[in-house]
Amino acid sequence: MIYFFDGSKDAFLTAFLLAFRDEHAFLTAGNCQLTLGQESVFVRADPEKARRCEARLSELDQGCMHDLDILLRSGEEDRGQIAYRYFRFIALRKRPVRGMLSEDAVIAASECMRRVTFEVHRFKGFVRFMESESGALYAPISPDNDISELLLPHFHGRIPDIPFVIHDVRRAKAAVWDGVHAFTAPLERAEIVLSADEEGWQALWRRYYASVNIPSRRRLKQMKGYMPVRYWKFMPEMPAAAIGDLPAKERTASPAECEDDAPRPRGSS
Questions:
Q1: Per-residue H/E/C for 111-168
Q2: Which of 95, 120, 139, 182 has a 20 to 30 A CA-CA distance from 150?
Q3: 160 shares a domain with 101
Q4: 141 to each of 172, 178, 242, how far by Cα in Å?
Q5: Domains of the chain: total
Q6: Are strands 130-131 and 2-4 parallel, antiparallel or unpaired?
Q7: b/e for 15-46, b at 16 or more Cβ within 10 A?
Q8: Are residues 83 and 137 in the same domain?
């Protein structure tokens, strides 16, 4: 049996309760090709069942709901099944299992969570804010995983007095600090009017990047390992252009040029 759910925690826990006794069950929050004779069901979130399931699992492992939050943020298509196998193993063993790294279910879950948390760590250095005409900061990102909400505490701690928006253009959502409240909200597109100083700040950043670069010590493979090419399009310094690996491009792209419909900030004039 294949159990489809909408990717939310409550829907997963509801599906988990329904599927638990079937060791061959498959849970997915995406698309799945059915084989001949295979049955499927779409599971809607049942808050009461979800709370009951959460309470029981938390008795077995107090940290498992944090693990579930990280797993469901993964961009991997099989995140639902990875989470199902991991939580089913917790339920069968009746205790925490995250240290049992010889078990396939634990290995898969650990690797999935590691990729999410590592991307959060990366984006703490990859986010590039732009100053808007109002003084608020805006940063478009396109991460592999749903991490915009996880970035909020870091940047709130760094710039608590300045409102900012971290816009995940791939998922059409934003993490927002308005100076008083931190929250997430849907955001399809953003039209930003940049401040008069923004171009100067970006030029200064590019000059700094070029000045610390040593052409005779280029290590492109290593650099791309630390700063993957898929993150470059929202970086004003455009690392490849600075070192001559790729031709310089405009940092903001039109919808036809970018699969996730990146926003196009407008300068002040």
A1: HHHHHHHHHHHHHHHHCCCEEECCCCEEEEECCCCCCHHHHHHHHHHHCCCCCEEEEE
A2: 95
A3: no
A4: 10, 19, 21
A5: 2
A6: unpaired
A7: bbbbbeeeeebbbbbeebeeeeeeeeeebebb
A8: no
Rounded distance between C-alpha atoms, residue 105 and residue 82, angstroms: 7
**Structural domain of residue 70, as residue ranges?**
2-119
* CA atoms of 180 and 43, how far apart (whole Å): 37
Domain final residue pick, 98, 119, 140: 119
pLDDT tens figures, 131-144? 999 999 999 999 99
Tokens, residue 94? 């009746």
Give the ranges where 33-103 is alpha helix by DSSP (H): 47-60, 64-72, 79-93
Largest CA distance in the chain: 64
What's the pLDDT tens digit per position in 204-215? 888 888 888 888
Q: Are residues 53 and 79 in the same domain?
A: yes
Task: Answer yes or no: pTM beyond 0.90.
Answer: no
Do the Cβ atoms of 176 and 182 come closer than 8 Å? Answer: yes
DSSP designation for 3: E
For residues 184-200, give the mean pLDDT. Answer: 91
The kind and range of the H/E element at 181 are: none
